[in-house]
Write a structure and sequence with these properties.
Elements (H helix, E strand, L loop, with lengths): L2 E3 L5 H6 L3 E6 L2 H5 L8 E2 L4 H5 L3 E2 L1 H6 L11 H4 L6 E2 L2 E2 L16 H17 L7 E4 L11 H6 L6
Parallel strand pairs: 1-2, 2-7
Antiparallel strand pairs: 3-4, 5-6
Bound molecules: zinc ion (ZN).
């Protein structure tokens, strides 16, 4: 009873009753370092950079009409090294089967995932969460890069 989804419309009432609100699961990677998600870019060489250094997504930049001469970038395009190496190639497959977990030996990838997750807990969609379940992909394979192999990986079938 004390373990339920925090996104329901009765969140405040559930908290009042003392329920523990949980969120997370196999979708954490897709939520916080989605390879097909827009990669935030810090605007450089613009008037706005001098007055406001917040991070913008490419979509926000397009909406604001900011011309940077930059193509929209996705996480995977910006940092393919953050994603699982599978049969010699980095993979952006994190949904369905087969799918590859992100490259867990890449400290920058883990830092980005953690940063985005923590921000969500602070003031984002997960701000009411009491327990965050952090699971890797359901039946996901592990990155085959040398550093991940040193950490230990389960053999794939
Ligand atoms: Zn790796």
């Amino acid at each position: 009873m004390n373990y339920c989804d925090e996104t329901g419309k009765e969140t405040a009432f559930r908290k009042k009753l003392g329920m523990v609100l949980a969120r997370g699961g196999h979708g954490v990677q897709a939520t916080y370092i989605n390879p097909k998600g827009e990669y935030p870019i810090i605007i450089q060489n613009s008037r706005e950079m001098r007055t406001n250094q917040r991070i913008h997504t490419p979509r926000e930049m397009n909406i604001q009409g900011i011309q940077m001469g930059m193509a929209n970038s996705l996480f995977f395009e910006a940092h393919p090294e953050w994603y699982g190496l599978f049969k010699g190639k980095r993979s952006d497959r994190i949904n369905g089967f087969p799918a590859e977990n992100y490259c867990t030996s890449n400290k920058d990838a883990t830092k980005e995932l953690a940063k985005n997750l923590v921000q969500s807990l602070i003031d984002g969609p997960w701000k009411n969460v009491d327990i965050a379940n952090f699971w890797m992909l359901d039946v996901g394979t592990w990155c085959e890069c040398e550093n991940c192999k040193k950490q230990g990986i389960l053999p794939t079938g």
